[in-house]
């Protein structure tokens, strides 16, 4: 090979190497998943390139640099109930039973056993990895969603978590069209479509009996108020909020303010523990401090904010702090 030809080959090889190297560096610096192909093509180890616990631009589980967050965030308590984690420490069980005390509660472990014969007993969402970027939208019920035009932004998330009575029909432009998870308790239940996961927050043993009944015989019609005897929901997608996680949220995140956390705050914490990036919509009281809704004119209702069951102000301040610390992104609407 002539000297000139050899030089050309070397120049080409050098150019090729530097372009490849720059691209890999760029892909990991900006965490662009479309460029991750290079990692696999060259079989380069994760530990060498890994920059954080997830593949998003910012990862919730990144604990370095924020002692306030690191002190509170605990991934060892799973947000959802399984047969295995349903055996609660005595103190946790007593705390949970006190939330909505029942005069003659049924046997908890027998009810749990019956429950997992109706719904699946699975450990879900424990797949966090440097390659995963799961984006989630938590949609509260605030009237600040009215006229917000957030619909398509909400729909662009992987998980879309709604709660309680939240309707979509007629409000799509502001709240979106998709729901992957709908969080509720018996007294706030609504029918769902087949693709949505019903996430039940149990505040008493009767709530677990209710979901069994609502998915099968329809015999339970009343708790402390009349409830839906049957519910339209995909049995195979029903999930149960873990009472131990509920206590953790109350104590670690709310410093035991109020009687127990609101559906909105529990949904937000659920998202923070199973997602890598969380966007929050529909949180915020009206100018008088009421928890108004986007679908009705309930400005004077007062909702829970003034009843003492939840400490709405404290919850909102923690939520704002999470946003200040770039752990969540908050969309405040109008
Ligand atoms: O009214 P509801 O309890 O169904 O609302 C669901 C959640 O949305 C609440 O638990 C609260 O966290 C949040 N919310 C809010 N501001 C409102 C209405 C609701 O932050 N105006």
From TrEMBL:
Disulfide bonds join 136-275. The chain crosses the membrane at residues 12-30. One of its GO terms (molecular function) is beta-galactoside (CMP) alpha-2,3-sialyltransferase activity. GO terms for cellular component: extracellular region; Golgi cisterna membrane. Pathway: Glycolipid biosynthesis; Protein modification; protein glycosylation. GO terms for biological process: lipid metabolic process; sialylation. Pfam families: Glyco_transf_29. Substrate binds at residues 100, 141, 164, 224, 260, 264, 284, 293, 310. It comes from the Eukaryota. It catalyses: a ganglioside GM1 (d18:1(4E)) + CMP-N-acetyl-beta-neuraminate = a ganglioside GD1a (d18:1(4E)) + CMP + H(+); a ganglioside GA1 + CMP-N-acetyl-beta-neuraminate = a ganglioside GM1b + CMP + H(+); ganglioside GM1 (d18:1(4E)/18:0) + CMP-N-acetyl-beta-neuraminate = ganglioside GD1a (18:1(4E)/18:0) + CMP + H(+); a beta-D-galactosyl-(1->3)-N-acetyl-alpha-D-galactosaminyl derivative + CMP-N-acetyl-beta-neuraminate = an N-acetyl-alpha-neuraminyl-(2->3)-beta-D-galactosyl-(1->3)-N-acetyl-alpha-D-galactosaminyl derivative + CMP + H(+). InterPro entries: Beta-gal_alpha2-3_sialyltrans, Glyco_trans_29, GT29-like_sf, Sialyl_trans. Its main location: Golgi. It is a single-pass type II membrane protein. Keywords: Disulfide bond, Glycoprotein, Glycosyltransferase, Golgi apparatus, Lipid metabolism, Membrane, Secreted, Signal-anchor, Transferase, Transmembrane, Transmembrane helix. The keyword Aminoacyl-tRNA synthetase does not apply. It is an enzyme of class 2 (transferase). Its EC number is 2.4.3.2, 2.4.3.4. The keyword Transmembrane helix applies. It is found in: Golgi apparatus, Golgi stack membrane; Secreted. Belongs to the glycosyltransferase 29 family. Homodimer; disulfide-linked. Homodimer formation occurs in the endoplasmic reticulum. This is CMP-N-acetylneuraminate-beta-galactosamide-alpha-2,3-sialyltransferase 1. It comes from Kryptolebias marmoratus (Mangrove killifish). The lineage of its organism: Eukaryota, Metazoa, Chordata, Craniata, Vertebrata.
């Amino acid at each position: 090979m002539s000297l000139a030809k050899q030089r050309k080959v070397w120049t080409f090889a050098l150019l090729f190497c530097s372009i490849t190297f720059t691209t890999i560096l760029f892909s990991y610096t900006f965490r662009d998943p479309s460029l991750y192909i290079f990692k696999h093509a060259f079989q380069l180890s994760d530990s060498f390139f890994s920059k954080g616990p997830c593949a998003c631009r910012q990862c919730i589980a990144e604990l370095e640099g924020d002692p306030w967050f690191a002190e509170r965030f605990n991934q060892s308590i799973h947000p959802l109930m399984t047969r295995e984690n349903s055996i609660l420490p005595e103190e946790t069980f007593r705390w949970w039973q006190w939330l909505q005390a029942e005069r003659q509660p049924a046997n908890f472990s027998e009810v749990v056993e019956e429950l997992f014969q109706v719904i699946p007993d699975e450990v879900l969402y424990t797949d966090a990895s440097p390659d995963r970027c799961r984006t989630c939208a938590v949609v509260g019920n605030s009237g600040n969603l009215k006229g917000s035009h957030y619909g398509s932004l909400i729909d662009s998330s992987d998980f879309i978590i709604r709660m309680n009575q939240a309707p979509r029909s007629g409000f799509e432009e502001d709240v979106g069209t998709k729901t992957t998870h709908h969080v509720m308790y018996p007294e706030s239940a609504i029918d769902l479509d087949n693709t949505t996961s019903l996430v039940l927050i149990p505040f008493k043993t009767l709530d677990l009996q209710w979901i069994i009944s609502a998915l099968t015989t329809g015999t339970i019609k009343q708790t402390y108020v009349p409830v839906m005897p049957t519910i339209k929901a995909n049995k195979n997608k029903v999930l149960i909020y873990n009472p131990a996680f509920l206590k953790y949220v109350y104590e670690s995140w709310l410093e035991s303010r109020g009687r127990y956390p609101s559906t909105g705050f529990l949904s937000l914490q659920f998202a923070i523990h199973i997602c890598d990036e969380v966007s929050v919509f529909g949180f915020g009281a009206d100018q008088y401090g009421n928890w108004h809704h986007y679908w009705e004119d309930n400005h004077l209702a007062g909702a829970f904010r003034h009843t003492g069951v939840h400490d709405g102000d404290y919850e909102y301040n923690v939520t704002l702090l999470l946003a200040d610390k770039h752990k969540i992104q908050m969309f405040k609407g109008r």
